[in-house]
UniProtKB/TrEMBL annotation:
InterPro entries: Bact_HTH_transcr_reg (IPR050679), Chorismate_lyase_/UTRA_dom_sf (IPR028978), Tscrpt_reg_HTH_GntR (IPR000524), UTRA (IPR011663), WH-like_DNA-bd_sf (IPR036388), WH_DNA-bd_sf (IPR036390)
UniProt protein name: Phage tail protein
Any GO BP: negative regulation of DNA-templated transcription
GO MF entries: DNA binding; DNA-binding transcription factor activity
Keyword Transcription regulation among UniProt keywords: yes
Residue span, HTH gntR-type domain: 14-82
Keyword terms, alphabetized: DNA-binding, Transcription, Transcription regulation
Lineage top rank: taxon: Bacteria
Entry-linked PROSITE patterns: HTH_GNTR
KW DNA damage (keyword) present: no
Amino acid sequence: MDAFFQKLDLDGDGPLYLRLKAALAEAIASGRLKPGAALPAERDMAAALGISRVTVRRAIEELTREERIERRQGAGTFVAEPLTRIEQSLSRLTSFSDDMARRGLKPGSRWITRGLFKPSTEEVMALGLSPGARVARLVRVRLADDRAMALERSSLPEDILAAPEIVETSLYDVLADAGVQPARAIERISACCLSEAESLLLGMAIGAPALTVERLAYNGAGRVIEVTRTLYRADVFDMVAEMTF
């Protein structure tokens, strides 16, 4: 393994830790560093490359945050197993929790915001709220087997979701229990790059590609009862639509 690191090409422009990160990422992507392979200790890697431990540590931290490398308590640092790509159907109105459970993954959430708030101008317009109305706002990182998969921001009228704190996993299960679940939805999909704040929440590199899905959900009477904007990791999700002729 020391010989492998001695042959890494760190030439180029930019900070040395980013060049090391790029070289390691390329080695992982090409299969020269295989999933499950143990990496040397930081001091040994630094010695083999002739660079500082601080530089090695910063590169490893970046790759760990992007889930290319994982640290195992008491065991060391290893090349992470690649994430299995997920096909997200655009044909049916389903919840993230149900989608993950059908794939044998454990759904979860890391909550950022959950409560009733004064609505923003955008929420008033999208939800058709009257003056003085409040909005239930849910912001969370969606997890599958404890891995961050998406960043989801949902807004609903207070009369549709009066107690947002009861939502633990599936919002749609809570709405169904209350008899106010959506009947149909319109979704708009676009590509974007993650901001610094978004990348930190998803454990991705700043500017990493993502898929934005903006959803307007309607009840049976045609009223908008949910506005959701979800950022899906582009390295994990494929959006699939079924069409018939």
